[in-house]
Amino acid sequence: MQITILRHGIPDLPVWDRIHSSGMPEWIDAYNSVGVKDEVNHSCQEMIRESTYKFIGCSHLTRSIHSSIIIGYQSPDLIDAIFREAELPVIQIPFIRLTPHVWSMVYRVFWFAGVFIQVESLDLFKSRVALAADKLIQLAEKHGSVLLIGHGIINRFLAKELISKGWVGEEAPDGKKYWGYKYWEYATYLKK
User: Fold this and answer.
1) Architecture (CATH level 2) of domain 2-18+29-89+118-191
2) Are 131 and 76 in contact (CB under 8 A)?
3) Residues 22, 108, 14, 147: is their CA dihedral positive or negative?
4) How do beta strands 78-79 and 55-58 pair?
5) CB 92 within 8 A of CB 110
6) 125: pLDDT strictly greater than 80
7) pLDDT (0 to 100) of residue 133
């Protein structure tokens, strides 16, 4: 059994100038609704060419679904919000203007520190990740090989969860890289 987790492609979002924190909800909505650029890196192309995935899953976010189409899977077998990215809390910080990318990093630090205004907390996110990992494992047991097209933060948490459940692979997928991927196999020899 094998589970491969792939990060979506480069979001096809225009560059935004510096904005106040009050503009971040609009940027987050835009980011969550765009597809990805039609550029797939070489290692991902090779992995897809050599693969024989029996089941393809995506989050419900457009960039995940569009990535599936770009790599040749016109209709994913499963589209499920359980695989969505960890949401960003939007905290109003007056007078400062930053790029949305920098605001995202600031908000992620707040989220890891326990500030989760109008989004799921880190604890709830970890619970969702555990359920998502169980779903992937069930799919792998049924289909043999599964590809999930996910997102940066959740992919890293899924990797840790799979390892804790006896799957062998690298602890962190290339979550920082678009089209980055890693795979895990079930270690039956560890379960004697």
Assistant:
1) 3-Layer(aba) Sandwich (3.40)
2) no
3) negative
4) parallel
5) no
6) yes
7) 97
